[in-house]
Design brief:
Radius of gyration: 23 Å
CATH class of one domain: Alpha Beta
Number of strands: 19
Largest sheet: 6 strands, parallel
CATH architecture of one domain: 3-Layer(aba) Sandwich
Strand order of the largest sheet: 2-1-3-4-5-6
Shape: globular
CATH topology of one domain: Rossmann fold
Number of helices: 14
CATH superfamily of one domain: Methylthiotransferase, N-terminal domain
Distance between the termini: 30 Å
Strand content: 15-25%
Structural class: alpha/beta
Length: about 475
């Protein structure tokens, strides 16, 4: 079952609101009011939802995944791509019937999409059954918002983006028991021309290293074996902070904690990725041999239009150094196809980079304009259909690379974390220190444990056997 970490405090004011909200919820709904949290988007949103679930529990609610039985429904939203926003609106629409059947239900929308004023205005106008909309930097005030609504207050729209201190001492109801998320920083200062994140997440703010170490220690003590450090750009961790701890040093300090666990991180920006960080990955035995380093385009002309502030050459130099220094390195990346002004010749430069690096896997997207970003105002003459053809060509190239890469694992033995089990078929799935998934015979009792697995064959998936 999901676990609460040892820290279940709340800032004093929110703690008072939580207690009052719990009393009102019990009076209104009975002894067991229920809350459902629906999360869209990235791992950072998942982590934010875990914190809001903790606050909901402190505010008297029991968590449920069944929206139809919930008294409080919260949508934590994503604004990175248009498709994600369309899905959110569709899901919000399904709550109208629930609200008509029970007007006492509270419907809330928060997160990156909700941070946009145009979205908040649309919800206020077109979705009158939504009770509250709040942005990314006021999520710690959820108990207050619940109390205000339960006590008869009007609809709540709170989009403050003050880039202030990061709220700490927030209770966390984690979704997993041995794989978990640990945010180290929030916001972004890069302002890539296609990206909405700085406008909805605010500027970069790093948590104090002592806070991060304490949370990591709690997770390890609670049995977590795979801890992923999160940030819009983790490589920028600590910039401008008086404590003087950068991301490489933070990795070293977490690596030094007692316990048998693995450290992962995302997402990295190539302009801030250093050889020192790569050396740290190599030297820290608990840090995963995986580097997710989005390059987005292989064309220097397009990289400049994207405001990425690195070049194809500097990116390839970093990749070459990482390959030379990190054994069994798993390399993954992000690519945007069809950025405004991109030509087929630019796209071919992306293809050639993919062929040269031979990534383990790629996250690929056709460009999606985001209102309010510079790229949204750029001339974009290439049709969606043409971009789709480029996209299919990229997928074919990467598929061939992946097939060549996967068979290289045959005969090798890896330390694998058992993270999935099929009761009906009796096999376990697990991941090595990189991103490679292996299937092998096992039992449910092995979940959350490390075992050594020797890869025997590839038949649509890698299959291995547990060895001593």
């Amino acid at each position: 079952m999901p676990q609460m970490i040892k820290n279940d405090k709340l800032p004093a004011e929110q703690s008072i609101y939580a207690a009052r909200a719990a009393a009102l919820a019990a009076r209104k709904y009975g002894e067991n009011p229920k809350a459902c949290v629906v999360t869209f988007g990235c791992q950072q949103n998942v982590s934010d939802s875990e914190r809001m679930k903790g606050m909901l529990v402190r505010s008297g609610y029991t968590l449920t995944e069944n929206m139809s039985e919930a008294h409080f429904i919260l949508f934590n939203t994503c604004a990175v791509r248009e498709h994600a926003e369309d899905r959110v609106y569709g899901n919000i629409g399904t709550t109208k019937a629930l609200k008509n059947a029970n007007p006492e239900i509270i419907v809330a929308v928060c997160g990156c999409m909700a941070q946009r004023q145009s979205v908040a205005d649309k919800i206020k106008r077109s979705y009158p059954y939504v009770d509250m909309v709040f942005g990314t930097q006021v999520q710690h005030r959820l108990p207050e918002f619940i109390y205000r609504r339960l006590s008869g207050g009007g609809r709540i729209f709170e989009l403050s983006l003050d880039n202030g201190e990061i709220p700490e001492d927030v209770p966390i109801k984690r979704d997993g028991t041995f794989k978990g998320w640990l945010p180290v920083m929030y916001g972004c200062d890069n302002f890539c021309t296609y990206c909405i994140v700085p406008y909805v997440r605010g500027r970069e703010r790093s948590r104090e290293p002592e806070r991060i170490i304490a949370e990591a220690s709690d997770m390890i003590a609670s049995g977590f074996k795979d801890i992923t450090l999160l940030g819009q750009n983790v490589n920028s961790y600590g910039k401008g902070e008086p404590h003087g701890v950068d991301f490489a040093e933070l990795l070293k300090r977490i690596n030094a904690l007692d316990g048998d666990f693995r450290i992962r991180f995302m997402t990295s920006h190539p302009k801030d990725c250093t050889k020192r960080l790569i050396d740290t990955i190599r030297d820290c035995e608990k840090v995963s041999s995986h580097l997710h380093l989005p390059f987005q385009s292989g064309s220097d002309r397009i990289l400049k239009r994207m405001n990425r502030r690195y070049t194809r050459e500097s990116y390839l130099e970093l990749i070459s150094y990482a390959k030379e220094n990190i054994p069994d390195l798993s390399l993954t990346s992000d690519i945007i196809v069809g950025f405004p002004g991109e030509t087929y010749e630019d796209f071919c430069e992306t293809l050639s980079l993919v062929k040269e690096v031979e990534f383990s896997s790629l996250f690929t997207f056709i460009y999606s304009p985001r209102e309010g970003t510079p790229a949204a105002a750029m001339e974009d003459p290439v049709s969606r259909e043409e971009k789709g053809r480029w996209f299919s060509e990229l997928l074919r190239v990467q598929e061939d690379i992946a097939k060549r890469n996967i068979v290289k694992h045959i005969g090798k033995t890896y330390r694998v974390l058992c993270d999935g089990f099929s009761q009906s078929e009796g096999f376990m799935t697990g991941h090595n220190s990189g991103t490679t998934e292996i299937e092998f015979e096992g039992s449910a009792e092995m979940l959350g444990k490390f075992v050594n697995v020797t890869v025997k064959k590839y038949d649509g998936a890698l299959y291995g056997t547990v060895t001593e």
